[in-house]
Design a protein that fits this description.
This is Zinc finger double-stranded RNA binding domain-containing protein. With 376 residues, the protein is mainly alpha-helical. The chain is 43% helix and 7% strand. The C terminus is likely disordered.
Length: 376
């Protein structure tokens, strides 16, 4: 959101003083009324800029590290085309799926995507104890209030958003209007002029509390995104992630700055080990599994494993056992396998995901799949 002009406090843009200390790029250059600017537009402009900066050995951000353009290639057994896929096919004459397969087949690629765009990238993950982080976030909101964030929102609202609201065309899901703050202060900004000062103050206080809650929620979402995007997606095409603890900001140089500089100086052989990705083997995110017991189609190995551990699935397994006692007898005569990579079958009665703690049985009546090993 920092690419848009305006709302410098809301989007936490660097100050003029900070810009004088270090050159910053791609900040405040998109008109705030533009709602169609996408991450692809950002990437294309940034790649050209990085090509200019790369001889100076600058570093790059995550959205530019991977070659792969993500698309949904399969959905419930049917082919699905995204607008991006159609555009690629129109411009190149080559199906998007074929380009993705070529990327995955390149050196450094795997079943999840193509190789990294740049050599030896790393990511610094600033994390903190959640209780301490919540206090820091609340303090940041207080600093924003002191800096005049409400007046900034009011001025921006009058200039760009008031007419949209009168036309009932306001949109808080796209462009700069999705910034944290607009939705939270909507009632305050649109309060009738006839409202009493007490009513306005009440709406203002509600907006402040909503802003703090939204900020804390967004921080948790960011942490979850980092874990899912990098730490739970093993493979050679995942950048190394280095965790830096910012719980105690008074020790910033000791716990953040110095370790980060040390890592940058020794990227070829870091003195600090990166955070390890969870899971040593690759999972197929596009595999299809059918559970007739629950009448569900599950896409992806990880989702399939989670389904097999779910209470709903185990409920149907127990129900099947009661209605068909022969399942228990047939299960006793079969030798279960403890291999986490065992391929699921569809002929036995009880299904338990590998690693779920129940090793007496592995498979379930009515579960089918596409011969994809389920791993943890």
């Amino acid at each position: 959101l920092q690419v848009y002009q305006g709302l410098d406090i809301v989007t936490n843009k660097v100050t003029a003083e900070e810009r004088n200390q270090c050159t910053h790029h791609m900040i405040g250059f998109v008109d705030p009324l533009v709602s169609t600017y996408t991450v692809v537009d950002f990437r294309n402009k940034a790649v050209a800029l990085i090509s200019f900066l790369k001889p100076c050995e600058r570093t790059n951000c995550q959205s530019l590290l991977e070659e792969q353009t993500i698309t949904l290639s399969l959905c419930c057994g049917k082919s699905c085309w995204t607008p991006g896929s159609l555009q690629i096919h129109k411009e190149t004459g080559i199906p998007h799926s074929r380009l993705l397969e070529e990327q995955r087949g390149q050196e450094g690629g795997d079943g999840l995507g193509g190789p990294l765009r740049y050599k030896d990238p790393c990511i610094f993950w600033l994390h903190a104890d959640m209780e301490a982080l919540d206090k820091q976030l609340d303090a940041r909101v207080d600093d924003m209030l002191s800096a005049g964030v409400i007046q900034e929102l009011r001025d921006f609202h009058i200039r760009y958003n008031r007419q949209k609201i009168q036309d009932n065309s306001q949109d808080y899901q796209h462009g700069i209007f999705q910034s944290i703050g607009f939705k939270e202060f909507h009632d305050y900004l649109t309060a009738p002029e006839s409202s009493t000062q007490q009513e306005k103050d009440s709406l203002r206080d509600k907006g402040i509390e909503a802003l703090k809650i939204a900020t804390r929620r967004y921080a948790r979402k960011q942490n979850k995104w980092v874990r899912n995007r990098f730490l739970r997606r093993p493979g050679d095409n995942i950048p190394a992630v280095y965790g830096l603890d910012v719980t105690d900001v008074s020790r910033w140089e000791e716990t953040v700055l110095d370790p980060a500089l040390q890592i940058l100086d020794s990227l070829s052989k870091p003195a600090i080990a990166p955070v390890r990705a969870q899971g040593a083997e690759q999972r197929n995110k596009r595999s299809h599994h059918t559970c007739d017991l629950c009448d569900k189609v599950i896409i992806g190995d990880l989702e399939w494993t989670a389904h097999l551990k779910s209470k709903k699935h185990h409920y149907h397994v127990r129900k099947k056992r009661k209605s068909d006692p022969s399942c228990d007898q047939s299960q006793r005569t079969s030798a279960p396998s403890d291999s986490a990579g065992e391929t699921l079958s569809k002929d036995s009665c009880d299904t338990v995901a590998p690693g779920s703690g129940d090793q007496t049985s592995q498979d379930s009546t009515g579960t089918t799949h596409e011969e994809v090993p389920v791993t943890l």
